[in-house]
Specification:
By secondary structure, the protein is mainly β. The protein has two domains: 4-121, Immunoglobulin-like (Sandwich); 126-219, Macroglobulin (MG2) domain (Immunoglobulin-like), CATH 2.60.40. Helix content is 0%, strand content 63%. It has no helices and 19 strands. The strands form five sheets. Strands 6, 7, 9, 10 and 11 form a five-stranded antiparallel β-sheet that branches. A hairpin with a 2-residue loop joins strand 6 and strand 7.
Amino acid sequence: MKRFLFYASVITSLCNVNLFSQIIPLPVELVYFNYQILDSTKVLLNWGTATEVDNYGFNVEKYSDANWGTLVFIPGHGNSNVPNYYSCVDSTINMGKTFLYRLKQIDVNGGIKYSDTLVVTIISGIKKENSLTAKNFFVAQNFPNPFNPSTNIRVEIPERSEIVLCVYNTLGNLIIEKNYGEQSAGVYSITFDGSKLSSGVYYYTILCGKYSQTKPMVLLK
């Protein structure tokens, strides 16, 4: 696992005679920085540290409108030799967009260090029905069917998993694949756009972790 070391600057005294500035590595050891897409409407950022020395906190930064800006400030634990866990949620996202995130670690003396950048893409075409729950994996027949040019596919997933839509022609060739990322348990509506396809019979497969199901659909233009 890749780890990042943040450093701080300290002033030390030697034999109570000479006061001098010395750079001593005081690590804020970042052991992970990752994300989850929540219901296709929010991004949950998670990170953790193994150790912290003089850690004032983290600015969570987001790249938007050709500039980096601070999304939120999360206080650090100062000095700690035990693991610490952090998180924040960005609800200011747009479907079909790509976002960049990074951590700006700040020490108590004002020193700073940046983490690697996370690249997050929010795929459009999926919506969670927030009032509904799922006990089993289920894929409904698309509606309307026949359709022109778009149709909806209802998917129920009983546990958090990645949702993938695959569309095949009658020869069994994969013509479209869309990964909607990891989603929480629940009921989802996937909108499939067939405007670039010709009329005919197609087969759609929904993949969710260990589950999969295939059904036919008819595009009639």
